[in-house]
């Protein structure tokens, strides 16, 4: 291997791009795989879990890593595209080692692992050499004291815990996009996944749940108590919540709908009543809706909401009152690109585009796709027979329904046709 830093910390590796010798990015680092031995013996780093294009996770042996610097990882380009499957003798550093409770015998300090450092031994193997430990907080506002110690000076790292915490793993997950965090959670062992789900706040769990495969969504929701499961569903977008509830047993679905806030439950029930793979079933009932007397400043304030999906922030829908779906008559849409060219005090009605045709509730998925493609839209209004706005179909909603089941798990090919294939030894 070529020149490498003397020590690299695992938490800082997560998310770094992985490049082949030609400088093309082939994936991102998601975890480290190690073989734990005895307490005093430094674990050997077997390789990295990498996410390649198509969100497939593969194993990259450390023998294929040629260089690691502060911003990227370089490989030989010879990668096995087979999906990573963890073996019983292997431990994931981010997924399983963070938050383990350990003791530093020399000082009597007990705390949890929040990072580990690895370096190359004389044999050129990579080994875990340092452990970052955080003591429990003694006050509500301050974090506990931290310690950076040698691997051999810590006890408890090889011990499996029945009630392992999740604080530091969740901190790492919170730095990722929801789709990336979902991939990490999908690959966790069952008991570790349960601990993480239990410790996540409702809003973040809802975001991640929307990105998980259907079977994972159902499994996680069914393990939660009913009150919390209903709270999670309320935090999800109504169309995603409707899709998830439809996959639950009828008695479970009825219970959760009964526990949700009436307005939230009503939106979900309405979406569930529409025929599958139609505009009505795909749409979200919560686009940005304004009255014609709203100003450009009002519109821009609404689309600045960081929780608003990008596709819904591209336009606002101008309607007669009431302004909650089903609204009064839809007058037209105002594109954000146009609004940015107008003075803030201008009425949005002055920038109204009334030429865009609306979709009907029963429009098929092919009709929706043709409509969005024809008019180069990222979102399209859905109206009833009286011209009242019922919701909007976004391009990401459309793709979710057009792609085949399990598309996230579909096999992907390396984009480098000259790259060889190495078997995992």
TrEMBL record:
Lineage top rank: taxon:
Bacteria
Give GO cellular component annotations, separated by semicolons.
Answer: membrane
**Record flagged with keyword Cell membrane:** no
The CBS domain covers which part of the protein?
352-410
Q: Give any GO molecular function from the UniProt entry.
A: magnesium ion transmembrane transporter activity
The UniProt keywords, alphabetically, are: CBS domain
Record InterPro entries: CBS_dom (IPR000644), CBS_dom_sf (IPR046342), Mg_transptr_MgtE_intracell_dom (IPR006668), MgtE_N_sf (IPR038076), MgtE_transporter (IPR006669), PRC-brl_dom (IPR027275), PRC_barrel-like_sf (IPR011033), SH3_actinomycetes (IPR058838)
CDD domains the record matches: CBS_pair_Mg_transporter (cd04606)
Give TM segment ranges. Answer: none
In terms of PANTHER family, this protein maps to: MAGNESIUM TRANSPORTER MGTE
Q: What is this protein called?
A: CBS domain-containing protein
What broad taxonomic lineage does this protein's source fall under?
Bacteria, Bacillati, Actinomycetota, Actinomycetes, Propionibacteriales
